[in-house]
Amino acid sequence: MSSPTERAVSDSAPASLEEGRRVLPSRTEPLVAAVTAPLGGPIGDHAAVGRHWFFSPQRVGLLLATLALMLCWFGKASCIQQYTDETGHNQLDWRAGRPYVAMCYTDLVPLYTAERLNLPDTVPYRTTWVENADTPNAQQHYMEYPVLSGFFQWTVAKIARVWTAVSDAGWLPGALPVAVYFDIAAFWLSAAWLVTVWAVGRTANRRPWDAALAAISPLVLVHAFTNFDTIATAFAATGILAWARRRPVLAGVLIGLGAAAKPYPLFFLGPLLVLCIRAGKVRTWALTAGAAVATWLAVNLPVAFAFTPGWREYFLLNAQRGMDPDSLYNVVSYFTGWAGFDGAVPQGQTPSVLNLVTAALFLLCCAGIAYIGFTAPRRPRLPQLCFLVVAAFLLTGKVWSPQYSLWLVPLAVLAIPRWRPLLAWMLVDALVWVPRMFYYLGVSHKGLPEDWFLGFVVVRDLAVAALCFQVIREIYRPGHDLVRLAGDDDPAGGVLDGALDAAALKRRQPAMAS
């Protein structure tokens, strides 16, 4: 016997999916319907949808995102606490493994000194320093981030220095410089995530409430301030929105800026090329690709010419980097004892086999995604292919830093707007943070052994792979795609939305019920 919530969703779903109407999750998603039960249940047939003076789906999404970001800040705040040492000086309280026990670790705090941002004369990519100077492992270092992320950190450090100077004069509240730096960085990273949520809501067309999935994602609660990745997600999401609004040059500029912060937005050009070839819109793709490359070069070339060794640091570091603990290669190596992925390569040398394997697997996945894009009975939606490419990069890569999962959130919401599986994946992915922190704490300090942590990593990877399978299933069976059931073709598609296949790529258009 069905519950009242299930009957309400079942009875009202056809009306909510009627072509041309806004999709209401409280009537189409059992989970949302259950959550709204204490508030009166699913929205009624005669409700004045879209006429409230303030609480539009966009504003509700931004309010939810603001709440999530506040909770994330409180979660990280334990790592900017201070104490007074024996000499009477205030120090950052990272004693007794505090970042791991409190699970508040954030890269922003150690990078403040590691990247020499605490020094007044630091210039990213020009300033250099030597670590382990008195040992055989002495190495020269520069800023190790892409140009836009590097100068973001430098700008925030300069603002923090001004704030500290004013607070010392008694005009502003004061704290340790690193705490001031973290708070200012968190403010701008929050703004970037709000832009991401806004862009997702604007792109979703008849499904604006889906932006709430990005807003309240458990991954945001944990990783919004773990690193600087919300900058890239903001540019990536607005780039897709610009493409959806049929502004290909602006889309390219935004994608290029995103790639100057973290490289992954450049991956969008591959799915765009496949879909544009299929729709006969290659000239439009060329405008976007050209603008993206030109923008990336405009940001990078001045630094590359002025500070060549420092600019190369990011690329050299990634080439020499070994497999991270949370990569599938480490899982295989740990449980099988096989060292074939250059496990014994000394620090500072390139793991050639590992780099070759990761590149080959990713390119193979890209070829498979292109095949899907060309052979699907109906042209896939842009977010579907973008999600598959970014997920393939993470699954096959030698590095999956925890905050990288934020890259998938906007794409997943647009590609597969099914609340229960998405929230389940986000929760699993976010919870990997717990065993990760206790693994880093170390067994000698009552932490977790590596095999427990790797077990959670495998579950996370399986969850992402399951989402990929669902996306591919909906590509080949578009009658199961909730976006197309709502009456849209491809809201993010721009010139691709509603376009027919090119003459040489005609495909049989399946019935929506297939």
Automatic annotation (TrEMBL):
Return the InterPro entries for the record: GT87 (IPR018584), UCP010361 (IPR016570)
Organism annotation: Amycolatopsis pigmentata
Q: Where is this region: Disordered?
A: 1-21
**Any Pfam family the entry gives:** GT87
Where is this protein found? Cell membrane
What is the protein name stated in its UniProt record? Glycosyltransferase family 87 protein
Annotated membrane-spanning segments are 178-200, 212-243, 249-277, 284-307, 352-376, 382-401, 422-440
> Which keywords does UniProt give here?
Cell membrane, Membrane, Transferase, Transmembrane, Transmembrane helix
Q: Provide the topology term for how it sits in the membrane.
A: Multi-pass membrane protein
